[in-house]
Design brief:
Helices cover about 65% and strands about 0% of the residues. By secondary structure, the chain is mostly helical.
Length: about 180
């Protein structure tokens, strides 16, 4: 009963009057007004100033398509799917599984993530990324050996880019989980 029919979440369409002055100002500064729909922007628009910051990060990482991601759209989709699986974010999973397939991510790799299977038999690079993000999301840390493997394979800058992408989808995904 607490789900709004226009947004399919607990959040109604944005109401300018419910925002504090700085939120109203940030909302007014948007080039296009938000429209109610069941998607991430519907939730984040309630914090307009912070949303602009997320937008800058997202654009730098190629969100939402992965085009422009420094490691390519295929790796972008793999990281998003790992994040969506680890936080049980169905909306992002449903959007990015078909996108991953279009971007060359094999169904066998997707299924390892989807069904929480062992990474044995995957290409070493894919297995490393899955192991790394599972450790980070589940144990909230990575071993020195796993960190060294990531840096050797991807370099420090790209490893951080990957973590920033995971953090971006984690942030928005957990908000979407909260509002249903």
């Amino acid at each position: 009963p607490d789900i709004h029919p226009a947004t399919l979440s607990r959040m109604p369409p944005i109401n300018r009057a419910e925002l504090a002055a700085e939120g109203q100002k940030a909302l007014d500064a948007r080039a296009t007004p938000p429209t109610p729909a069941p998607r991430p922007r519907h939730v984040t628009v309630w914090s307009p100033g912070a949303t602009e910051g997320l937008g800058v990060i997202g654009r730098a990482l190629g969100v939402p398509s992965g085009q422009g991601f420094p490691l390519g759209a295929r790796m972008f989709q793999l990281i998003v799917l790992i994040t969506a699986r680890e936080i049980d974010q169905q909306y992002e999973w449903s959007a990015h599984e078909p996108a991953g397939l279009r971007d060359g991510l094999e169904q066998s790799v997707i299924d390892v993530v989807k069904y929480d299977r062992d990474v044995a038999g995957l290409a070493p690079r894919d297995a490393l990324v899955i192991r790394y993000f599972r450790a980070l999301m589940r144990e909230h840390r990575v071993s020195s050996e796993l960190w060294a493997s990531m840096v050797k394979e991807f370099g420090r800058q790209r490893t951080i880019d990957m973590m920033m992408l995971m953090a971006d989808y984690f942030t928005v995904g957990t908000m979407m989980n909260a509002v249903g």
